[in-house]
Amino acid sequence: MISSMDAQRLVVSALLSFMACASAVAIDWPKTYIVAEDTTSPDGKYALIIRSADNGATDQGPIPDTDAVFLANIPEHKVIGEIKDVDYFERMNSRHLSAQWLADSSACLVLESHWLFGVDGVRFVERSGQSIQQTDLTKRIVAINPSDARVTFYFRFQPGPKVVVRATVPARQLQETKNSAMFRGTFDIPSKSWGAVNVCRVTFREHEALESALAEDPEEYTVVSSKGREAAADAARANEQIYPSEDKRFKALDELLNSVYAADRIILPAARLSRLKDEQREWLKQLVAAPTLTDKSKLMQLRIKVLQDLLWQDYQEKRSGSFKDGRYEKRRESPRR
Known about the structure:
alpha+beta, four-stranded antiparallel β-sheet, 8 helices, 17 strands, 32% strand, disordered N terminus
């Protein structure tokens, strides 16, 4: 059975597709809609548009009784297409919508999330002339958390082009479950399909290391003296980690490096981990030889970046498995040489 709301959405979506195909001209921008924050493409031409919070009820939008979201051409002030199954309006309570674009502005990841509970919607949207193509990536990723269907989500665009994804169960649930899971997958954009996909169980301590390793940027660790209050305020607005002395920054970077190295030990296969241990010993010699604490901090920042990059490479998972029907199934590991 199709509800009346779904029927209305189907009719309007079909009309959008028909008009785009028939005339190669997008429909007019709905008068109650505005550009959503954090969604504009790098070239400034495209963005998601949403219903303005100042325009009352949902029946004022192009699809009655919904808060449909559209991709639009900003200079031409035209709608290109609807982002399917996404309802959102300006300043929606506890919700956030963003679009993360490829550098050439040809496609984006549309992310829906709750401010506290994590990401619950991931869609790849690609412009195709005067229409859009969409692929819903949500189901595959949130399978690691079937009880809540939300994840802490990280990604990188890489050559191919492809989307490399890392996701974990949100930390708030760990108080109840005492364990977590990690998703690692690569979505190939040209074929619109997943390549390598791995999942593994992780402990609470391992989860903490993974979260720090994936979320933190060592270049944002800065030193601001107590006299530089204005600079400190600017750094805070830029989400930088601010420290009153080089000594305190170095200690914080040392803690972050330990977390990233621990995360590498979780993910890397035995052969690569063995090489990494040798590389780390050689790097420590450079660290000891650095003349000043500032030099040591700079070396630490560079090394953390190298260790973080290892988390985004494809490896055969040491503790791998798959999720089917909401259950985790462990795969038998091949013996190590």
